[in-house]
Amino acid sequence: MRVIALFQCLLAIVHLAIASDLRADDDFEWPPISYSTSTPENCISRLQDRLDRDELQLEHHETFGYLPAVLKALEVPIASQMFVFSKTSLQVRYITPRTPRAIYFNDDVYVGYCQRGDVLEISAVDPQLGTAFYTLDQRSEVKPKFERRVDNCLVCHSSYRTEAVPGHLIRSLFIDAGGQPIFSARSRSVDHTTPMDQRWGGWYVTGTHGSQKHIGNLILKTRNVPEPVDNTAGHNVSELNDRLDVKKYLSPHSDIVALMLLEHQALVHNRLTKANFDTRQAVDYDIMMNRTLEKPEATQSETTTRRIKSTGDRLVEAFLLVREAKLTEPIKGTSGYAEQFQKRGPHDTQGRSLRDLDLTTRMFKYPCSYLIYSEAFDRLPRPSKDYVWQRLWDVLSGNDPSGNFAHLTAADRQSIIEILRDTKSDLPTYWKQ
């Protein structure tokens, strides 16, 4: 019996090795994730359910199609609008520096709009599937139907740039006059750790930032990138009227604060998905091995423990903005997005919130991500969520003085603990003592 069990174990290992070799880039298509065949459960699937039951109608706008109605239904602020003019999306033929793609977002969804575009492009945060991609036909004669996309979106949105899971991708590139990326020069994935002087290539940026430099608003006349790049004309831009016809969009802004928060939350969303997938896959593997080797069902292997720890540690670092690029002068947007963002809360009994912005030396006044309130975090597998809560407590309570978290002062740590105690209902018991 023992020999048979060992043989079955070897067969299982060989099978997993072959699967890993053949489909290393999309192992999330296998159980327990089964990305393409699983039923989504996110803000878009819920919105579609309401449409199917005739509980909601989406009004079609003569110019913008279903965009205004979709943003309203999903509670996505127009002030979050940003313009990207690089040809790096599904509808590249509609995108130029004169006709950029507009992107809008909130904590749960990202919406892309192109002038005269065939569809709205949407990526929704799904607690069990990571990012779920959709399109919505913009024609008025077609009944609104969000179509899930599991094919070409994953070519770019499931790579090492997205933690090897279906995720969000923010890039900075040099762009020529036609909107084509100059890949030979530079292509960077951007998040809150990226120095400002490397951000926003291919994006329009409205807002003030003092003498700090970036490569937003920059369009190169040739495909030869000069060194150093002079982007003086692209800095501290408040209006974009001389670059595009802003009347053809819902807002004239491409707000710098919205851009910064977009980059932060894309990173956190990807790491939430990575922690989710890795934990579920590791636990599923343990179940199979325990059954094969006739071990107690709850036995957790050292490999699984290490895997949960690894992705959990990376998530904690993203939550607590480890290695955040420092600001040297104040940042101020133009659309009012920062003010709207901060009002959302939740606020503690002293009126403090993890959405409170600093924007002078760093992004947040209290450096802990507001996405700790997200459904994606709340629905992490229990082993992962327990580990993350314990690590956060170790850091914030002072039990872990390691250098990665040296940017958090004693006052920062105490404030974050107090805010979470007042605003997060499912804190572990040891957080409340």
Major β-sheet profile? 6 strands, antiparallel
Determine the number of helices (DSSP H or I, runs of at least 4 residues). 11
Number of domains: 3
Strand order of the largest sheet: 1-2-3-4-5-6
Which structural class matches the secondary elements? alpha+beta
In terms of topology, how is this protein built?
Elements: H1 2-22, H2 43-52, H3 67-74, E1 82-84, E2 101-105, E3 109-113, E4 119-126, E5 130-137, E6 146-149, H4 153-157, E7 171-173, E8 187-189, H5 256-292, H6 302-319, H7 337-343, H8 375-378, H9 382-396, H10 410-423, H11 429-432
Helix pairs in contact: 5-6, 6-9
Account of the 3D structure:
The structure is a single chain. By secondary structure, the protein is of the alpha+beta class. It folds into 3 domains: 1-30; 43-257, no CATH class; 273-432, no CATH class. 33% of the residues lie in helices and 9% in strands. The protein contains 11 helices and 8 strands. The protein has helices spanning 2-22, 43-52, 67-74, 153-157, 256-292, 302-319, 337-343, 375-378, 382-396, 410-423, 429-432, and strands spanning 82-84, 101-105, 109-113, 119-126, 130-137, 146-149, 171-173, 187-189. The strands form 2 sheets. It has a 6-stranded antiparallel sheet, with helices on both faces. A two-stranded antiparallel sheet has the order 7-8. Strand 4 and strand 5 (130-137) form a beta hairpin. Helix 5 (256-292) packs antiparallel against helix 6 (302-319) and helix 6 crosses helix 9. The longest helix has 37 residues, at 256-292.
